[in-house]
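Sequence, structure tokens reproduced for reference:
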Amino acid sequence: MALSNRKAFFMDRMTKQLLRKQYLQKRRELSARQLHESSQAIASLFLSLDMSKVRYLHLFYPIVELGEIDVRLLAQGLKEKQPALQLVLPRMEGNVLKHILWTADTPLQTNSWGITEPVQGQEIEPGRLDAVLTPLLCFDKRGYRLGYGKGYYDAFLAACRPDVLAIGVSLFDPLDQIPAEPHDVPLSLCITPGKIWSFS
């Protein structure tokens, strides 16, 4: 790697680390009421989307301690609006995610990362998923997201069909630009409490 490219690479890494710290702090500054109201607003906008062609939707279970959006509100609304829709949750196995059908009978437990996940259940291959609700800390106006830095969702989205609908949910409006790497998969949509952002 040329010196100039290496410098740019490390500058981008530093920028991402600073953004992670900044947005984790912004989350911590929100009250429980603000987080709940924002989660309700995001769920309401999500439910306004046409999901009639979506059979399998992959969700993530919120980590309340990290101030994540409570997508359980969204899941509850979807079950009422579109009962035939199948919901899927991730389960961590080593360095990869497995994807398990989430039903009323699915046993859940909290792993060592503080993530609630299925104990067991029917595995769904990434290629069968029609839409993926993607966790993030912030996103930009091009549709690139900044996650927690582990790379699980970039690898996961790369394994999905090219036409999968990658939907972000964010408590905050987009930045102009986040450093992106070749393996980063941009979002199709991102929903904030006040708007649905769409990316080509």
Residues 43 and 74 are 5 Å apart (CA to CA). The longest helix spans residues 3-28. The two ends are 31 Å apart (CA to CA). The mean pLDDT is 90.
